[in-house]
Amino acid sequence: MKILSGLDVSKALRIEIKEKVVALKTSGKKTPHLAAILVGNDGASMTYVAAKEKDCQEVGFNSTVLKFDASISEVDLIKEVIKINDNPDIDGLIVQLPLPKHISEKKITETISYKKDVDGFHPMNVGMMFKGIKTFLPATPFGIIKMLAYYNIETAGKHCVIIGRSDIVGKPMSALMLQQNCTVTVCHSKTPDVSVFTKQADIIIAAVGLPNYLTGEMVKEDAVVIDVGITRVADASNKNGYKLVGDVHFESVAPKCSWITPVPGGVGPMTRVGLLLNTLEAINSK
Ligand code: GUN
Which residues constitute the domain of residue 85? Predict the structure, then answer.
């Protein structure tokens, strides 16, 4: 069993991004600039946005975080998004989800200019992705594709089973693995027996959000297993008071695998670098 280290791959990709930013700056071109909108004070969202800001600084991008109270109206938030759409200095915009219940995530996502939509959530970008037209890809599936390529994992003709059908991971992942010439099966909460499919899978991508969901008996020998899960589970021994637990029961699954991602240090760092790659690309999309 070998480890697919998102930490190692993301380090290598960040070095490449940094070099490209230096080249942009020295040739007098624009420095990529990411804006993030954060509404309210959800702990996980605040952590994610702070991490994105730190990542931008580390590779030499400019970054702006706009924070709004949870009581902001939908109309006012739409106005803020439009201001950023119209600001030529900002190349990429993300609105951190989830949003408060009184704000439609669909409306906000559709208000972001698809040319600045570095999350790849706008229907225009989703459509282009499904057609295989080059565009912004959602960061997690993008990061996973980059990781598979880095380790030369064979995908053509392989059976890839994806567990989860979210707009952010499962659905886009299925389109991208099809483009990698996999035979793709998508399992979800209404699939009667997920193990029927996972036992046949050459590649499993677990994105259900249930800690330790995928166990050893659900996996065939030599499978490649990608764990997208990052559930926060209370842990008094950790200084944060929680630990991150994946969807894969590592102890029972890892011995059967050819390759497996750890949690943490697997998909998480790849998601972060996926957003940076999109932001770098965004300077060309206006
Ligand atoms: N909330 C959880 N994941 C994401 C993401 O990838 N982008 C945004 N904008 N919000 C999220």
Answer: 28-113
